[in-house]
């Protein structure tokens, strides 16, 4: 009855680190340990209840046998007072039988009571251990959650400024420089094209002026 609980407690105390090394979820494992303990305690409570019931049954039988001893003794006295020795003898013989039964039942009852006291004590110890493990479980659970949070934060922070991140920033910087170079080139080309157009415009303007001067000379308007 109590060996199962002891087995579970041994696993919690001595094998928790091994379970963690196997990458098992410690929170889930601790919850399972507690459920196993609770199941063992329920089984123990059932066994203790049966033992107590047996103790009470033997106690009642012992008390009933004791009462019969007292009753037969009183009846024997009444029979003697009535001058009926035969009836008194019969009462005393039955008293002897009930007395022997009472003695046997007393031994069984005393033994049952000792057993009940023993299993009660063990059950109390189991419950005390359970509550200690529950406190330990809550503490380990909190520590596990805290460790997970720290690990997650450390992994996130370690990614900032890493080689991959630096290379990514450098690639983006190169792209920005390329975009700026392309923009400057396009502006230079536009400026160059504008100057060429201006030159042609100036050339065309000069041709018109020459033609105007020639026409004036022809008309004698100079």
From TrEMBL:
<protein>
    <submittedName>
        <fullName>Phage shock protein A</fullName>
    </submittedName>
</protein>
<feature type="compositionally biased region" description="Basic and acidic residues">
    <location>
        <begin position="163"/>
        <end position="174"/>
    </location>
</feature>
<feature type="region of interest" description="Disordered">
    <location>
        <begin position="141"/>
        <end position="174"/>
    </location>
</feature>
<comment type="similarity">
    <text>Belongs to the PspA/Vipp/IM30 family.</text>
</comment>
<feature type="coiled-coil region">
    <location>
        <begin position="27"/>
        <end position="54"/>
    </location>
</feature>
<dbReference type="InterPro" id="IPR007157">
    <property type="entry name" value="PspA_VIPP1"/>
</dbReference>
<dbReference type="Pfam" id="PF04012">
    <property type="entry name" value="PspA_IM30"/>
</dbReference>
<keyword id="KW-0175">Coiled coil</keyword>
């Amino acid at each position: 009855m109590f060996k199962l609980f002891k087995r579970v407690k041994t696993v919690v105390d001595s094998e928790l680190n091994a379970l963690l090394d196997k990458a098992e979820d410690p929170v889930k494992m601790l919850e399972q340990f507690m459920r196993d303990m609770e199941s063992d305690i329920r089984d123990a409570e059932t066994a203790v209840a049966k033992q107590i019931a047996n103790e009470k049954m033997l106690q009642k039988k012992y008390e009933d046998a004791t009462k019969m001893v007292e009753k037969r003794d009183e009846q024997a006295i009444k029979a003697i007072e009535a001058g009926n020795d035969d009836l008194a003898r019969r009462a005393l013989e039955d008293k002897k039988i009930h007395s022997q039964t009472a003695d046997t039942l007393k031994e069984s009852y005393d033994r049952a009571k000792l057993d009940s006291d023993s299993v009660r004590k063990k059950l109390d110890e189991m419950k005390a251990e359970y509550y200690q493990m529950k406190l330990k479980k809550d503490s380990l659970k909190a520590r596990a959650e805290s460790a997970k949070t720290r690990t997650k934060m450390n992994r996130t922070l370690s990614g900032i400024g890493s080689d991959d991140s630096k290379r990514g920033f450098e690639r983006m910087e190169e792209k920005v420089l390329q975009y700026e170079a392309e923009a400057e080139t396009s502006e230079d080309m536009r400026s160059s094209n504008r100057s060429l157009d201006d030159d042609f415009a100036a050339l065309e303007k000069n041709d018109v002026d020459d033609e105007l001067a020639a026409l004036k000379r022809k008309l004698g308007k100079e």
